[in-house]
Design goal:
globular, six-stranded mixed beta sheet, about 20% strand, about 350 residues
């Protein structure tokens, strides 16, 4: 049994500046050279089919998975609510009738068409409570999950009026990607064993990217459906949110990664973005080094008090222009600053109603 316990998180050491980690350049092995065409599938393991759907962002695709399940199929994630995605599902469903849909987490590219698929096929939604509740709170714009709360949070961390206005003008973009959420769902718990097509898939719960993110591991086939918890090339977004203004989501994420180290090194990882890959232990090591390096850069930049907005160029070597990317960049910057604060390496102060961070020594 592999477990993701909720962390009694241990932040990075506070006893002086650690050396900058040596760059790690480990390339995963990709068994499949090309992704499937829109509305088609590729079998990546017996009874496991890879589907790719488009997204309207710089990250232009999401991988979905269809698992043979008796006379029907279990789907993992649904895609963003776009007509082109619905059209692709229309082509898939005759040969892949759905028995249920498991959604890894609340983000719109994963949950977006769950209600549409349920209405069309009768396939019920399976999800964790944390993800289902978060989806409802954002969709309904409740309290700390509203656009107004996010903007207040970002302003407090130094985001200028122009970029805040651009975010405000987007409105509730989440509801466009997820126009409807099923009124009921079947709750998934950590450690559950879900029988799919005569095989057992263990539910692994990860934190940091989302509240109760589901990954699925099949020991018989040595296959991990990692969702967004483990991606082959890009790094998972780890953001702080207005509803938890003193949390440490980066520590939660790094803690969650430890369970992947217990899986066999030849595990086939099926991520939500990018191609399926082998090299799970190396990829975890790369991610750990990446976040350590980012923390090192932030700490070095905070000789004088700095806000999260002022530190975006330290974390990102590209122009962060559009509101969608600004939202992720601010969330990432704040999350890393919170992590350093929890470690006792930075302290926060408020100057002119702006939260800034400076080194403790």
């Amino acid at each position: 049994m592999i477990t993701f316990s909720h962390p009694g998180v241990k932040p990075i050491p506070a006893d002086g500046l650690p050396p900058t980690p040596a760059p790690i350049r480990l390339e995963p092995h990709y068994p499949f050279a090309h992704p499937p065409d829109n509305g088609a599938t590729i079998e990546v393991a017996p009874g496991i089919h890879w589907v790719r759907m488009p997204l309207p962002f710089a990250l232009d695709h999401i991988n979905l998975w269809l698992l043979a399940d008796g006379e029907g199929w279990t789907g993992v994630d649904t895609g963003y609510a776009l007509d082109v995605v619905k059209d692709a599902w229309e082509r898939l469903l005759p040969a892949h009738p759905l028995r249920r849909v498991i959604v890894t987490h609340f983000h719109p590219d994963h949950l977006g068409l769950a209600a549409w698929l349920e209405a069309k096929t009768g396939a019920p939604l399976w999800m964790t409570l944390g993800e289902y509740a978060t989806a409802q709170l954002i969709h309904q714009q409740v309290a700390g999950y509203s656009i107004a709360a996010m903007l207040e949070f970002f302003r407090a961390h130094g985001l200028d009026a122009a970029r805040c206005d651009a975010l405000a003008q987007r409105g509730n973009a989440y509801a466009r990607g997820v126009p409807e959420i099923p009124a009921a769902y079947r709750r998934i718990f950590a450690g559950d064993e879900i029988a799919i097509g005569g095989q057992s898939w263990q539910v692994l719960i990860g934190h940091g990217h989302a509240a109760e993110h589901v990954s699925l591991y099949c020991e018989q086939q040595k296959v991990l459906i990692s969702g967004d918890m483990l991606l082959p090339r890009i790094t998972t977004n780890i953001s702080a949110f207005s509803s938890n203004p003193h949390g440490d989501p980066l520590a939660e994420f790094l803690h969650s990664l430890q369970a992947f180290k217990t899986l066999p090194p030849d595990t086939l990882v099926l991520p939500s973005h990018g191609r399926p890959f082998v090299g799970i232990h190396d990829r975890v090591a790369v991610l750990e080094a990446h976040h350590a390096e980012r923390c090192q850069k932030l700490e070095a930049a905070c000789v004088q008090p700095q806000s999260a907005a002022e530190l975006i160029p330290v974390l990102f070597d590209r122009d962060i222009a559009d509101p969608h990317q600004t939202m992720f960049a601010m969330g990432e910057a704040i999350a890393h600053l919170f992590h350093l604060e929890h470690a006792g390496r930075l302290r926060r102060m408020v100057e002119d109603d702006i939260i800034r961070f400076t080194r403790c020594r």
